[in-house]
Amino acid sequence: MAVKSQAQRRKFAQLLVEGKIKPEVYERWNREAGKKQLPERVKRRKAKKKNATRKARTKRKKRK
């Protein structure tokens, strides 16, 4: 798991200082992110609606 944002990178650094995660884990996550510029925060993706199209199809079939 690589860090995805600056906020997450800071949180993991804080956990490292508090001793809640091992230094090896922090280094691995930080290394996977590389030197690229990360966004400050990442928003969650919205879940896709699967049942909406299925219900619409069944309603059309029942009408006929």
Question: Kindly state the mean pLDDT as a whole number?
Answer: 81
Instruction: Write down the secondary-structure element order.
Output: HHH
What is the structural class?
Answer: mainly alpha
| pLDDT < 50 runs, ≥5 residues | none
Cα-atom radius of gyration: 21 Å
The number of helices is 3
User: How many individual β-strands?
Assistant: 0
User: Between the first and last Cα atoms, what is the distance in angstroms?
Assistant: 51 Å
Q: Bin the strand percentage.
A: under 5%
Q: So what's the overall shape?
A: elongated
How does the major sheet shape up?
none
Helix content: 55-70%
Structure in words:
The protein has a domain at 1-40. It is built from 3 helices and no strands. It has helices at residues 6-18, 23-33, 51-63.
Keywords for this entry:
64 residues; single chain; mainly alpha; 58% helix
Summarize it.
This protein is mainly α and 64 residues long. The protein has a domain at 1-40.
